[in-house]
């Protein structure tokens, strides 16, 4: 709801919304994301959080998964969402975590093939998830060592290219004082 409101009241900036995949079904998430993309005129992006905060996951009645299972779950989740956003008709999906029969979402997002995706995976499973699915990796700058940061960015981009022939952006938070 926040992202839709911001998208409606602005005209230039990308509106990135965060989704915690264990608590939103991919069909619902696809429809929500499409709405924000339309309201914002194609300026929507999605930050995918795989469920690290177990207390929040429990609050929704979901069972927290172990680290690598969270990324396997998110892999199925975003694979379904990408299909919902891009395939013209219904499709079936039979995975370990999701069973979808004749899944579809209309209308489609304005952005093709779908809105930009971000994740902050720092572990091996997380980096592989980003390299496979995302347009942006969010990496916290845990040091002011420029060489370390450059190598971290280079390693992310190399992984995305070597494993998936994809180029990705690497983002971080900064503070202006």
Give a nutshell description of this structure:
This protein is α/β, with parallel strands linked by helices. It has 6 helices and 7 strands.
What key attributes describe this structure?
6 helices, globular, two-stranded antiparallel ribbon, alpha/beta, 177 residues, 5-stranded parallel β-sheet
Give your account of this protein's structure.
With 177 residues, the protein is α/β, with parallel strands linked by helices. It contains 6 helices and 7 strands. The protein has helices at 2-9, 26-39, 54-59, 67-86, 124-133, 146-164, and strands spanning 15-20, 44-49, 91-94, 99-103, 116-119, 136-138, 169-171. The protein has a 5-stranded parallel beta sheet with strand order 1-2-5-6-7. A two-stranded antiparallel ribbon has the order 3-4. Helix 6 links the parallel strand 6 (136-138) and strand 7. Helix 2 crosses helix 4 (67-86) and helix 5 crosses helix 6. The longest helix has 20 residues, at 67-86. It is globular.
């Amino acid at each position: 709801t926040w992202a839709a409101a911001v998208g409606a009241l602005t005209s230039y900036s990308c509106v990135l919304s965060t989704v915690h995949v264990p608590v939103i079904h991919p069909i619902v998430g696809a429809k929500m994301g499409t709405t924000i993309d339309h309201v914002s005129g194609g300026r929507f992006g999605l930050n995918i959080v795989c469920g690290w905060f177990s207390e929040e996951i429990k609050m929704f009645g979901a069972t927290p998964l172990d680290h690598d299972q969270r990324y396997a779950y998110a892999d199925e989740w975003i694979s379904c969402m990408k299909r919902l956003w891009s395939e013209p008709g219904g499709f079936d999906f039979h995975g370990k975590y999701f069973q979808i029969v004749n899944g579809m979402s209309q209308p489609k997002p304005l952005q093709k093939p779908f809105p930009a995706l971000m994740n902050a995976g720092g572990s091996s499973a997380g980096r592989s998830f980003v390299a496979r699915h995302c347009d942006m990796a969010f990496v916290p700058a845990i040091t002011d060592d420029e060489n370390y940061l450059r190598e971290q960015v280079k390693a992310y981009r190399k992984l995305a290219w070597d494993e998936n022939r994809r180029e990705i952006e690497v983002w971080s938070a900064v503070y202006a004082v």
